[in-house]
Amino acid sequence: MSWELILQSFMLLFLFVLCIIAIELKNLLYAVITLAGASIVLAVIFYMLRAPDIAITQAVVGAGVATVLFIIAVSRTKREE
Hints:
Radius of gyration: 15 Å
Distance between the termini: 50 Å
Helix content: over 70%
Structural class: mainly alpha
Mean pLDDT: 94
Largest sheet: none
Number of helices: 3
Shape: flat
Number of strands: 0
């Protein structure tokens, strides 16, 4: 088993854990930040799979634009305690 396969498996497991954490979080802002981290991890996975154009797009759109839109949407909602 090569080190690259082990690293890819670890990154996929880390991505899965981040997504589960984002689902379970009660604070929406923390969930959005966790999803941004998952998006960055996915971009790294794409880069490791030798798809740098998709990795750059994922980083810009997934972690950049989508996160900003989600934060704006969360900031406009009313929070009930």
